[in-house]
Design brief:
elongated; Lipoxygenase-1; 5 helices; mainly beta; 7-stranded mixed beta sheet; 2 domains
Length: 397
Amino acid sequence: MAELKAKITLKKKGEQAYLSLRQLVVSLKWSAAVDLDLMAFYKSKDNQVGGVFSDNYQGGSMGSLNSFPYIQLSEDAGVGATAGENQEILRITKLDDLAEVYICAVNFTDASQNRPNSFAQYDAHVLLVDDRGESIAVPLDSTTPGTVAVIAKIDNTGFMGAKLINENQILDLNSFQSQIPGANTLKLSSKIVLNKKGDSVQLKPKTNGSLGELLVNLNWHQGQTTTQPQGGFLSQMLGTSSNQGAIDLDLGCLYELTTGEKGAIQALGNCFGDFNQPPYILHCGDDRTGAWSEGENLRINGEKVAQIKRILIYAFIYEGIANWSEADGVVTLKQPGAPEIIVHLDEHRNNLAMCAIALLENVGNTFRVEKVVQYFSGHPEMDQAFNWGLRWVAGRK
């Protein structure tokens, strides 16, 4: 249970307190297994509107304390509905240009499933501390079902200075976006970002127990083509490729079925797989340059999850210099009716052309998705690291 300590507690809607607002720290704390997100939306005195919220959301910004709107978010805690001592902090250092600021919390876990729930079950509260150390608490204890809590409003339009008002309003996402200035900039289209190696999330089965069709997408920045691409993966590994510009990044996977069958799916060697027959994984085609806006895709038949033991998603640079930082690759796993899962190809090792990106393991007839992002000189080295036990020979596209 998140502990609530404050000099003043605003328990009811409409209760107010004046604050010294040269600096303000707003913290959201909770311990339940839910992904709550602290946010601030504002309207400036010249009628600009906007928001500060996690950049794990599409179009999100963590803000800045050194430039407008002088609001900054510390982190995105609780991703994947993780229980524990979760905390997110908003800092506000200047209100001179702002007329209104709304402190809000989005229940992403339920909002992404369009499933209104009571905030009271999640033991959360918001604590506001001004530059004099005065603290004001607003508990999130409403039993009204919804997915967004409009916790408090800072009104900076009065001649006596800024005041904090307990809004205590629970809304659905559409009402929230239509009523709160700047909230229409929030989109739920992409949220679960596996930031660190070892971060994981478990996919939620549909009502019939299946996962539906899973789409694994790889996209990247293609770079500049300076010469006609020549040579393949083997020649590039030997340092004889003449392509010094555009990067041909290939998506693939290793798979292991519950029958013990193992193999690889990739364009190299024309191993495109099959969606309806074992291994229930299909490569959708090869994008040689990254110019195709949709990148490369793997389809995984989630109706057959019980037949799949594990899948290792990987990418390798078939053409071009092994420069992962320039490629700026990202893998997105999409499941119908669920938030997209994002894995960035970061922690770059630019001298190695193979990257193991994510491991999908069957846990209770669903997949646990774990970020690995580990670089290798080639397929055999990656295979050995993950104990797959395949035999590898040189191939071309």
